[in-house]
Write a structure and sequence with these properties.
The longest helix is centred in the N-terminal third of the chain and has 27 residues, at 2-28. Helix 1 (2-28) runs antiparallel to helix 2, helix 1 (2-28) packs parallel to helix 3 and helix 2 runs antiparallel to helix 3. This protein has one domain (2-109). The protein has helices at 2-28, 38-64, 70-87, 95-109. 28% of the residues are buried. It has 4 helices and no strands. The chain crosses the membrane at residues 42-62, 69-87, 93-112. Keywords: Membrane, Transmembrane, Transmembrane helix.
Length: 121
């Protein structure tokens, strides 16, 4: 279980760094004009695109690392992390920690039950 959580947290941290980079690129105005809501429009388009692509990349990365139930970790963790980062819009530097924490949490919650576990305990 520890390996699974560590790998999931690592993949989440990398996706968080990608989110931070995407946001800083948009905020700098390098890929959008700051006139007439141009950068806001780019962010409104980029956030859901990142959510979908991040979930797919996270799923494939966890699958390549032989993490069991990779897609059950990647999809909800990415979607929750993107929503959290939209709500924490002013603190994009926390993206790697938010993504890593949510990936680790979902990895724990979706982990396989131990063999021989007693029901009700």
């Amino acid at each position: 279980m520890g390996r699974r959580v560590a790998l999931a947290a690592g993949v989440g941290a990398l996706l968080g760094l990608a989110w931070w980079g995407m946001f800083e690129l948009l905020a700098s105005g390098a890929v959008c004009s700051k006139d007439d809501w141009g950068c806001l429009q780019a962010f409104v388009i980029a956030a859901p695109v990142f959510a979908v692509l991040g979930a797919v990349v996270g799923g494939f990365a966890l699958r390549a690392l032989s993490v069991s139930r990779a897609w059950l970790v990647a999809v909800p963790a990415t979607l929750m992390a993107v929503v959290a980062m939209v709500l924490l819009l002013g603190m994009t530097f926390l993206a790697f920690a938010v993504f890593a924490a949510l990936y680790a949490l979902i990895a724990v919650l979706t982990g396989a039950r131990r063999e021989g576990a007693v029901e009700g305990s």
